[in-house]
Amino acid sequence: MSMAKISEDEHFQLLAFLLTSARGCVDEPAIYGPLRLIDAAERLINIIEGKHQRKVVELEEIRELIQKARDYVVTNEEEFIKALDQLTLKISRIIKRDVITFGPTNSQYTKNGK
Amino acid sequence: MDVLEIIKGRRSVRSFSDKAIPKESLYAILEAGIWAPSGSNIQPWEFILVDDPGLIKKVKLVSPGLYGLPKALIVLCFNKKRSEKAGRIGPSLAVMDISMAAQNMMLMAYSLGIGSCPIASFNKIALKELLSIPEEVEPVLMVSLGYPSRWPEPPHRRPIEEVVHLNVYGQNLRR
Ligand SMILES: Cc1cc2nc3c(=O)[nH]c(=O)nc-3n(C[C@H](O)[C@H](O)[C@H](O)COP(=O)(O)O)c2cc1C
Hints:
The structure holds 2 protein chains of 2 kinds. By secondary structure, chain A is mainly alpha-helical.
């Protein structure tokens, strides 16, 4: 048997986030459910881009929208829901085209070899 | 800065710079906490300062409401044995006491240019395990601390006229 440190692993971080969010959602306001899901989605974008060692133009657009949506959670529920609609539209467009566009190589990935 | 300026300027900060917080500042923030009022002056609180970067990352793993990577965390807990002295109302008074301590800490932090965020969305079971918190001590709230990479815009506040009732409920306060 071999052993490895796990807490720096991005998939493991997402796993811990999902499990603790699941428990939190039982007691927290209902709108925190979609909030945790878009937070998890942003983490998945990091994982996908890390895998390709590139920023992905379409995913960066989604990230920007997620960040905007997050600001709305406690300030404007209607705008939050609108942003969720835009996010689903964006992801369905990517699915329809089935193509993603890589941005320039990002030093963040090449430097750390992430 | 006058007091109202500090109260109005404090924001929940969710992204932090890499700059370290001086020890004296952390001490001043903690001191502001212990000077909060508490029911019957029971001071049921126990504060856990987490400044080990590796441990902060681990706490973040079990805290869905913790955004950014702060330089320090203060976990505000109450000691059930102490809060029992206040009778059956003890636990709810303890939560009030802790909230006041947290606000003192966050205002002190802001007066020193340090950002903070109160965090209730963390997993208590996991946090107790990670920080070896004994059974009789209950974590209630975390305060994250660090120099902000940006100060957020102030979120909307309900106006005084709507929130405050003059003498009897439903009668508006006019300036
Ligand atoms: C009891 C309490 C719990 C909170 N929990 C969280 C949390 O888990 N995560 C978070 O990002 N903000 C949390 N907040 C911060 C609020 O979202 C924030 O105070 C509110 O939106 C007003 O913004 P301001 O603090 O900048 O004035 C909490 C605030 C309070 C008082």
